Amino acid sequence: MLEAGKTYLTTNKHFVSGIRDLSQQCKKDEMISECLDKFGDSLQEMVNYHMILFDQAQRSVRQQLHMFVKEDVRKFKESKKQFDKVREDLDIALVKNAQAPRHKPHEVEEATGTLTITRKCFRHLALDYVLQINVLQAKKKFEILDAILSFMHAQYTFFQQGYSLLNELNPYMKKLASQLDQLVIDSAVEKREMEHKHATIQQRVSLNDFSYDDSKADFNVDAPNGVVMEGYLFKRASNAFKTWNRRWFSIQNSQLVYQKKLKDVLTVVVEDLRLCTVKPCEDIERRFCFEVVSPTKSCMLQADSEKLRQSWIQAVQASIASAYRETPDNYYIERLDRTASPSTSSIDSASDCRERSIKGETILQRVQSIAGNYQCCDCGQTDPRWASINLGITLCIECSGIHRSLGVHFSKVRSLTLDSWEPELLKLMCELGNSTINQIYEAKCEHLELKKPTSGCSRQDKEIWIKAKYVEKKFLNRLGSIELENDRKPQRWSLKKCHRNNSTTKVPSAHRKYRREMGNVSPAMLSSAATLERKFRRDSLFCPDELDSLFSYFDTGSGPRSLSSDSGLGGSTDGSNDILVFGTVVDSVTEEECEVSEDSSGEAETEQEPSDPEDLRELHPGLLMYRASHARNIPFMAEALANGANVNWVNEEDESKTPLIQAVIGGSLIACEFLLQNGADVNQTDIRGRAPIHHATYLGHTGQVCLFLKRGANQHAVDEDGQDPLSIAVQAANADIVTLLRLARMNEEMREAEGPFGQPGDTTYLDIFREFSHMASNNPEKLSRRSVHFSQSCR
């Protein structure tokens, strides 16, 4: 029974596991999923009760009976053997006594004595034997009864627990039974309707009133999911054989894309339909063909019928017209923006469609968890699913359409569920949020007659508010004329220092040179450079037999909330670190926030040094952007931008550096992403001819180098010393940056060799750059640098 019970339990467990797997497959149907989860849990409880029952049987029945048989019965059997042996001796003694002759008194006496002794021994053992028989018979009764009674108690408990469990489940089962009856009725109704439709379609076919493409000839430019039209088309390959392949095409987000199967990667045929023309083709052998022509390539497509061909041509033309309507007068601005800060989907577009949908839910949840983001920034509608990536706000679908009409120089709109997001862009969204941006753009809205619209207001009211807010900027507290409220403190710059023992780690020559060149800059800038020198000391060399070394470092940076050494605190040559903070942060920075972790054995000390705080009201917007970029304060960068700051502002007093270069020196990847999303020129140089990628390479900021390469940085440009980024990285022995630059250069050469119709990039190149981005944001602990000594031993 126990062996069969174990098999039964094992099979039951597999059955319960199967029910739970089925529940996971039915997650979309809430009713079935809930039912299977409840029943699976109940059956698992029954399995647990069965395990307890069989365990009780093992202890109460099997073990007790085993003890009775193996000990008590075994002792009895040994006594019986002794009794049988003495009985045989008695029989032998009786025979010898009967055979003793009369004339031999000696033998008679001996036989009589042996018989007497043997009889006494037999009677003694017989008494013991009878006693053991009686004792064993009595023990047998209570041993068996006790074991069986204990087992029956276990059975009673098992069925009692099962009854209680199922009794609690009974109301739900009754409710489910009633719902099941309704489902059966609905299914029967649906079946009848489908049969009726089937009969109608058959009748139309018989009357030649139905064509294959009737159900697929419609398109909708204003579709809520962004898909204007989709369906199968034949595509002529660009190879020498000009083969035709059937692919699933769709028009979405002003792009023409296709995929081989449902879960395959989306391939972009035309990145921007506004640059294209479409025309029917009658000069080739195949019927129903049309051609989509872009400035760089053309794509020959074939529909299944003439009606479908006309529908596709009209859908492309309508999408082109719609795209022009949504972004009037901003065509060249958007093209310039794409050159400086291309869509982040350029790397993530190779991800799997299923992963993108799962990731979309995660992105939606993360972005909506930021303060104020669960409502539309402009009208307050709940559960917004669109975002302005350069402003860092969430929007409802109607407000997102209005933002699109403003132009990309005001707002870049992206879907939180349909589009792919790079990690640095997601972190940028989490740094800002609706509450932060509304504090900037709606600072004086209470004092004006114009009221903020609600979700129930008309589109016209919302459009008036959004244009007044972001284009005319009526509600800003302008820099230089800020009227402070009584409960608001002036926003000022302040300075703190963290002292530490000097480290004796050897610094690469390229970095020492960069440090000497920084000698004539301001103390705050010198502070940051020294800190970056400390980081550079931990530089590692590439070890080719370890793949993880490709991703050995990625300086993600952090916002103003983190002022620790890992966030890039400034360090000075006298062994101290300067921390540049401003705004409300001045009053909240504590000694703990100023602690700096150092690889050396020296301990950091913090102290407050007196400095003259600078009033932000007196700063030029460009200078505010410049300083905020170095201090990693994204909200103040947004406020400077709202006040008209030029993201490419040049500081003539500091070697013509730009805010983007300052963000590099400050060590913040997110600040760089913010500037690039707002139109910063990734190739703008300072007075020494150094672009942001040169500075990032000198400082060993692998993450920023990766970001600039993705944003189209020119790695062939040389500075006044004739150094390009690759030669700088080689001199500094920074294998990570060398690897990235060489991969990017190799990919560039491959694309040039492929010609204008080549693929968008090598798969290995895309995978490595995507891995850098994702590991930096999701698993930063894997990106810690190894020591120089370990790297040299690897080499």
From TrEMBL:
<protein>
    <recommendedName>
        <fullName>Arf-GAP with coiled-coil, ANK repeat and PH domain-containing protein</fullName>
    </recommendedName>
</protein>
<dbReference type="GO" id="GO:0010008">
    <property type="term" value="C:endosome membrane"/>
</dbReference>
<dbReference type="Pfam" id="PF16746">
    <property type="entry name" value="BAR_3"/>
</dbReference>
<dbReference type="InterPro" id="IPR036770">
    <property type="entry name" value="Ankyrin_rpt-contain_sf"/>
</dbReference>
<keyword id="KW-0479">Metal-binding</keyword>
<feature type="region of interest" description="Disordered">
    <location>
        <begin position="594"/>
        <end position="617"/>
    </location>
</feature>
<feature type="repeat" description="ANK">
    <location>
        <begin position="655"/>
        <end position="687"/>
    </location>
</feature>
<feature type="compositionally biased region" description="Acidic residues">
    <location>
        <begin position="594"/>
        <end position="613"/>
    </location>
</feature>
<keyword id="KW-0677">Repeat</keyword>
<dbReference type="InterPro" id="IPR002110">
    <property type="entry name" value="Ankyrin_rpt"/>
</dbReference>
<dbReference type="InterPro" id="IPR001164">
    <property type="entry name" value="ArfGAP_dom"/>
</dbReference>
<keyword id="KW-0863">Zinc-finger</keyword>
<dbReference type="Pfam" id="PF01412">
    <property type="entry name" value="ArfGap"/>
</dbReference>
<dbReference type="Pfam" id="PF12796">
    <property type="entry name" value="Ank_2"/>
</dbReference>
<feature type="domain" description="Arf-GAP">
    <location>
        <begin position="361"/>
        <end position="483"/>
    </location>
</feature>
<keyword id="KW-0862">Zinc</keyword>
<comment type="function">
    <text>GTPase-activating protein for the ADP ribosylation factor family.</text>
</comment>
<dbReference type="InterPro" id="IPR038508">
    <property type="entry name" value="ArfGAP_dom_sf"/>
</dbReference>
<dbReference type="InterPro" id="IPR045258">
    <property type="entry name" value="ACAP1/2/3-like"/>
</dbReference>
<dbReference type="InterPro" id="IPR037278">
    <property type="entry name" value="ARFGAP/RecO"/>
</dbReference>
<dbReference type="InterPro" id="IPR011993">
    <property type="entry name" value="PH-like_dom_sf"/>
</dbReference>
<feature type="repeat" description="ANK">
    <location>
        <begin position="688"/>
        <end position="720"/>
    </location>
</feature>
<keyword id="KW-0343">GTPase activation</keyword>
<keyword id="KW-0040">ANK repeat</keyword>
<feature type="domain" description="PH">
    <location>
        <begin position="226"/>
        <end position="321"/>
    </location>
</feature>
<dbReference type="InterPro" id="IPR004148">
    <property type="entry name" value="BAR_dom"/>
</dbReference>
<dbReference type="InterPro" id="IPR001849">
    <property type="entry name" value="PH_domain"/>
</dbReference>
<dbReference type="GO" id="GO:0008270">
    <property type="term" value="F:zinc ion binding"/>
</dbReference>
<keyword id="KW-0967">Endosome</keyword>
<dbReference type="Pfam" id="PF00169">
    <property type="entry name" value="PH"/>
</dbReference>
<dbReference type="GO" id="GO:0005096">
    <property type="term" value="F:GTPase activator activity"/>
</dbReference>
<dbReference type="InterPro" id="IPR027267">
    <property type="entry name" value="AH/BAR_dom_sf"/>
</dbReference>
